[in-house]
Write a structure and sequence with these properties.
- The chain contains eight helices and four strands.
- By secondary structure, it is α/β, with parallel strands linked by helices.
- It has one domain (7-47, 84-235): Alkaline Phosphatase, subunit A.
- The protein has a four-stranded parallel beta sheet with strand order 1-4-2-3, with helices on both faces.
- The chain is globular, with a radius of gyration of 19 Å.
Length: 236
């Protein structure tokens, strides 16, 4: 094994910092994330440089702000020649792997990843490994495997997929397999595991959907000025 450290980067799309038992939510059970929080550094005040998916990922890849990368919305591509930290790791002998939602454009863009197991929202069968997995397991007929968008986009719904084939389970399983496969390999590795959820649609499998009583959950955290703005709009 290499004396250089292996790096596993875990990302969850739109995951609030306070949606953890370790951060004070009494209604949620998150034992594995709580263990990570207890054994590392846990930030209570951390802010994204941009609140939009693709620009935020471009900043994460490059360490540069949106006005420097030129990526300010989801329709703008990151320059394929842009310097990224996975490119630098790969240049220094790291095996670089992307698993899950990268939101690259095009989907297989080379921003420094030696290999990608992609899972996009939405994706195309030709370029999406998760959709190909579903097709191979007899679930290719599911039209919206990440949940019904449209009118149910922000409403809770039960996943159309069995628990073991849900997007979150697939991403986690692929990541575990990668780490185990690399355990005896000589070169160091970097793995960026990016979970689509809890990005809407909100579609947990049925056993997770029924795990919590909605009456036990806290309401959304809102700023007083936001509430005042909503009240004005209602009156109008």
């Amino acid at each position: 094994m290499s004396p250089r450290p292996n790096v596993l980067l875990l990302m969850a799309d739109q995951f609030r910092w306070d949606a953890l038992a370790a951060h004070g939510d009494p209604a949620i059970s998150t034992p594995n994330l709580d263990r990570l929080a207890a054994s590392g550094v846990s930030f209570r005040r951390a802010y994204t440089e941009t609140p939009v998916c693709v620009p935020a990922r471009a900043t994460a890849l490059t360490g540069r702000l949106g006005h420097e990368t030129g990526v300010l919305d989801n329709s703008t591509r990151l320059d394929p020649d842009a310097q990224t930290f996975p490119k630098e790791l790969r240049r220094h002998g790291y095996r670089t792997q992307a698993i899950g939602k990268m939101h690259f454009s095009p989907p297989r863009a080379d921003h420094g990843m030696s290999l990608q197991l992609s899972e996009e929202l939405p994706g195309s069968l030709a370029e999406d490994d998760f959709l190909q997995y579903l097709a191979a397991h007899g679930l290719g007929h599911v039209r919206e495997p990440h949940g019904v968008r449209h009118e149910l986009y922000y409403l809770p719904q039960v996943s159309q997929l069995p628990t073991d084939h849900h997007t979150t389970a697939w991403t986690g399983r692929q990541s575990v397999a990668f780490v185990r496969q690399r355990a005896t390999e000589p070169e160091p590795w970097f793995c960026w595991t990016s979970f689509i959820k809890p990005h809407p649609p909100f579609d947990p499998p049925v056993d997770w959907y029924t795990r919590y009583d909605p009456l036990d959950m806290r309401g959304p955290v809102r700023d007083e000025t936001e509430l005042a703005s909503l009240e004005r709009n209602v009156r109008l």
